[in-house]
Amino acid sequence: MGYGSYSAADWQKLKNSRKLSNGQSVGEVFKRTECNPKMDPKFIGTRECFDSEEHPNTTPIVVGLDVTASMGYLAVELATGALNELITKLYSTGAVEDPALMCAAYGDFQDKSPLQVTQFESDIRIAEQLLELYFENGGSGEVVPTCLWAFLARHTNIDAIRKRKQKGFLFTIGDNAEIRSGSVGATVARVIGDALPGEVTRESLLKEVEASFHVFHIMIGHENKENAELLPGHCMVLDRESTACLPEIIISTIQLQKGEAREDVISRWDELNRPVISAALAQLSLQADADIQL
């Protein structure tokens, strides 16, 4: 996947046709009442991100959203504006070559559908597929981005990794819910269908996905210390009022990972937003791409 290009006109047409606005409820934006089988990992063999003549150097970027009840407001913000901002600014800043985005939704371990994944796309289909996600509204305080880690590690075929030995980028965004540590293998088997051998832990799955993706976790509102210890130097905590800067923070993180100086990255953004972006980036401790061998 990943053919075509994103345009502001296509976004406006989609926004008008779906009557999207930031004041809407979760149910008004995300209308599905069950998981779309096309996004259910149990029915997906492989998600592909291939180069093409139009996009010869694709960069896979995955944005995973916590879709438990407490995070509904953020999903609405992303669907009604922030995703468009992210894609538009990815192209306008040239932060990465040929971005190809996948959206994912992860939930509570007790959910009927704890994981949903779209295709990698480079055009308006990114937003169209986001709107097809099922918002289950569960929540026991234990979420499973671990299932997304397992899926990306085991069920993707990506030219950037396979041909150019370049890692993709994964950003999961939630609140301070704990990344579940119990029954990890059993949960992956139920959600994805993979029977993983041996003892499976969130640490082992994280190590596996980190072989091909730079993994970042953004917590909105408050820190969860256990999550931060699991991903040292790759977690950021934002207050709810700062979520409007998520597109800039995601792009800036990619630029930092690619070796750009923090001062240069921050200076490109609107002066009013720089304090928020700077505070987020100051929480990171990264090893530049040039020093990483796949």
Question: What characteristics describe this protein?
Answer:
single chain, 294 residues, alpha/beta, six-stranded mixed sheet, two-stranded parallel sheet, 12 helices, globular
Query: Structural class of the secondary elements?
Result: alpha/beta
Number of strands: 10
Shape: globular
Helical content class: 25-40%
Integer-rounded radius of gyration: 18 Å
Query: Which regions are unreliable across 5 or more consecutive residues at pLDDT < 50?
Result: none
Give the N-terminus to C-terminus distance in angstroms. 23 Å
What fraction of residues sit in β-strands?
Answer: 15-25%
Strand order of the biggest β-sheet: 4-3-2-7-9-10
Largest sheet features: 6 strands, mixed
In round numbers, the mean pLDDT is 90
| Structure annotation, total helices | 12
